[in-house]
Design goal:
Blueprint (H helix, E strand, L loop, with lengths): L1 H16 L6 E4 L1 H7 L1 H38 L5 H26 L4 H27 L4 E4 L15 H9 L47
Parallel strand pairs: 1-2
Helix pairs in contact: 2-6, 3-4, 3-5
């Protein structure tokens, strides 16, 4: 609400002082990212890396479950020393899996780093195109309706298609990978994001949260 109030006050000031010179436009950056050829390619690359990391976590989780099943089967027929040794091995494997999960999908982990590495150049390119259009066509202000602060705007000042046309110029949309359902991005911190949140994702797997590796 504070951001909306500041925006309204700014628009009122602009309309009151420069009523004859104000030129407003708006874009929908969510749709730009969804329909951008480069965003589709970025998503494809990111999902390949993410799937590789997630498969490693899943394989380790399967190994831990097998170790625990074997322990339950043998625990009645082995010595206390052997039990302690097996439990230590299980705990060590859980700790290793937890470390790997954190390394890949934790705060500032490899997935988040890869996501930023791929998306930052595109967001800068989009910003540069918006700035260039604003300068070339003398816009006073261009708003982003995806931020949720624009309550109404006439479609005639929507610049989204114009920006998309410029962004997609000289690019080709990658062939869709049948393993993925959506061209957009999953949560880089969730290895088992099913791709259904906020329209972003890759339709990957049925799990909704990563396994917990606790000793």
């Amino acid at each position: 609400m504070k951001r909306l109030s500041i925006l309204i006050m700014a628009l009122l000031c602009l309309s009151g002082i420069y009523a004859q010179n104000v030129k407003l436009g708006y874009v929908n950056t969510d749709r730009i990212l969804l329909d951008s050829n480069e965003a589709a390619e970025i998503s494809r690359l990111f999902n390949l890396d993410r799937q590789n990391w997630t498969n490693q976590i899943r394989e380790m989780d399967t190994e831990i479950q097998q170790m625990e099943r074997d322990f339950e089967i043998r625990r009645l027929s082995i010595s206390e020393a052997s039990k302690r040794e097996l439990q230590t091995q299980i705990d060590a494997k859980k700790q290793e899996a937890g470390r790997l999960l954190e390394e890949y999908f934790g705060e500032s982990g490899l997935a988040e780093q890869r996501y930023r590495e791929l998306i930052d150049p595109l967001t800068k390119k989009i910003q540069d195109i918006i700035t260039q259009i604003a300068e070339d066509e003398n816009y006073t202000m261009i708003l982003d309706v995806s931020m949720g602060v624009v309550l109404f705007a006439t479609p005639s000042i929507d610049l989204t298609d114009q920006i998309l046309q410029e962004l997609n110029k000289n690019t080709i949309k990658p062939v869709e990978d049948t393993e993925f359902d959506s061209p957009a991005f999953p949560d880089p911190k969730d290895p088992f994001d099913d791709g259904m949140k906020d329209g972003f994702g890759d339709g990957f797997g049925s799990e909704t949260k990563p396994p917990e590796f606790k000793p």
